[in-house]
């Protein structure tokens, strides 16, 4: 019996952010109740044997009434001793909602703040204010949540270093347990893409360097390229992805991975519900990984972790060939069989990853 991570996708939002290309839909809240019933049916029909973590993402999971999650957790039969994370948007989770979710077993919250500055939040198309965030954060702490992550974006066009420093200072004052910092990417067909927005890579690199030093000075350990936590508060669920552990994805657009096979559910929530009702396959894509595919993926994902990866003996010659240049550049530390990114390599990780293919 193998341990599995579980991902539940909630594709509903009150509005779509201007940079978002995730599988999410605004203005379709009338489908929520039917969707949650379909989600329960999917889980029941292919329930994992043993679950060690659950992650509920979206979309905006906090736009779903807490009562509708009861049957979802019941279907999963989670033992109650592992990590359950739910994403929430500031201003979208009431005290009652947070308390109900805690009773269902939720142990960890991930809050999408992105910035503390009103002009940047407006530019990104976020619907909340910094004050909304402060209220939701305080409410979550009062409800007893002792593991909270805050998502921040750097590389936002027009964001000054002063604004970035101010955001980090305000966030650190609250002492969250975990911070994820992601470089903004301008994805095709998003409103920002249509406006020909672009990220200043030099400014983004400076912002990342500053965040690394600042967060480490304030007691956070970087354990992955974009993730920082106080000791013992790492996200176990995401670590499972980076270590290529099996995971089950449920819901519209959710991805699953078992053995050497990865497959994806149909994206559209209405079509997802229709297929559940009809008892037909939910799969829209399936990928059978070759031995070489698995080798690339294993190294690529393992290198995201600061501890790096222990290379299989059969892969050592290939890894040495692929990464020797980056070892010479000081981006990679080749202490075979262990390989890891240097501090500089963490900053330019995409340059290293591209050469694995």
Q: What is the tally of beta strands? A: 17
Count of DSSP H/I helices = 14
Under CATH, the topology of the largest domain is which? TIM Barrel
* Overall SS class: alpha/beta
Which outline best applies?
A: globular
- Provide the domain count: 2
Side by side, the strands of the main sheet go 9-10-8-7-6-5-4-1-11
Proportion of helical residues: 25-40%
CATH class of the largest domain: Alpha Beta
Share of β-strand residues: 15-25%
- In the predicted model, the low-confidence regions spanning at least 5 consecutive residues are none
Our Rg estimate from Cα atoms comes to: 21 Å
If classified by CATH, what would the architecture of the largest domain be? Alpha-Beta Barrel
Describe this structure in words.
The protein is globular and about 55 Å long. The chain has helices at residues 32-45, 70-76, 95-103, 118-124, 130-142, 161-174, 191-194, 201-217, 236-242, 269-278, 291-304, 316-328, 343-347, 349-354, and strands at 3-10, 12-13, 25-26, 50-58, 83-88, 108-114, 148-154, 178-183, 221-224, 227-229, 247-250, 255-258, 261-265, 283-288, 309-310, 332-335, 338-341. The protein folds into two domains: 3-242, Aldolase class I (TIM Barrel), CATH 3.20.20; 305-354, no CATH class. Strand 5, helix 3 and strand 6 form a beta-alpha-beta unit. The longest helix has 17 residues, at 201-217. The strands form four sheets. It has a nine-stranded mixed β-sheet, sandwiched between helices. The mean pLDDT is 95. It is α/β, with parallel strands linked by helices.
């Amino acid at each position: 019996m193998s341990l599995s991570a579980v991902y539940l996708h909630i594709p509903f939002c009150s509005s779509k952010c201007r940079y978002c290309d995730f599988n999410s839909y605004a203005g379709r809240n009338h489908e929520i109740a039917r969707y949650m019933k379909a989600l329960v049916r999917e889980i029941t029909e292919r329930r994992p044997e043993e679950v060690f973590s659950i992650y509920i993402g979206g979309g905006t999971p906090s736009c779903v009434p807490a009562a509708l999650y009861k049957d979802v957790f019941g279907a999963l039969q989670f033992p109650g001793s592992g990590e359950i994370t739910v994403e929430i948007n500031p201003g979208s989770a009431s005290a009652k909602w947070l308390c109900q979710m805690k009773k269902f077993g939720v142990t960890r919250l991930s809050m999408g703040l992105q910035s503390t500055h009103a002009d940047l939040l407006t530019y990104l198309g976020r619907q909340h204010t910094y004050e909304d965030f402060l209220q939701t954060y305080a409410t979550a702490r009062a409800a007893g949540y002792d593991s909270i992550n805050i998502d921040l974006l750097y590389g936002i066009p027009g964001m000054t270093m002063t604004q970035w420093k101010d955001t980090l200072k305000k966030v650190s004052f609250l002492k969250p347990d975990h911070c994820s910092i992601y470089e903004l990417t301008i994805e095709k067909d998003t409103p920002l893409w249509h406006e020909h927005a672009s990220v200043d890579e030099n400014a983004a690199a400076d912002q990342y360097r500053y965040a690394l030093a600042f967060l480490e000075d304030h007691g956070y350990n970087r354990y992955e390229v974009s993730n920082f936590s106080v000791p013992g508060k790492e996200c176990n669920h995401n670590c499972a992805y980076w270590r290529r552990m099996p995971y089950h994805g449920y819901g519209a657009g959710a991805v699953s991975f078992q053995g050497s096979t990865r497959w994806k559910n149909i994206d559209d929530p209405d079509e997802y519900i229709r297929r559940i009702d009809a008892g037909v396959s939910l799969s829209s894509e399936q990928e059978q990984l070759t031995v070489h595919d698995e080798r690339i993926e294993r190294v690529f994902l393992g290198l995201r972790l600061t501890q790096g990866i222990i290379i299989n003996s059969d892969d050592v010659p290939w890894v040495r060939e692929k990464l020797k240049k980056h070892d010479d550049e000081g981006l990679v530390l080749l202490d075979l069989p262990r390989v890891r990114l240097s501090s500089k390599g963490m900053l330019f990780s995409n340059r290293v990853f591209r050469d694995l293919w």
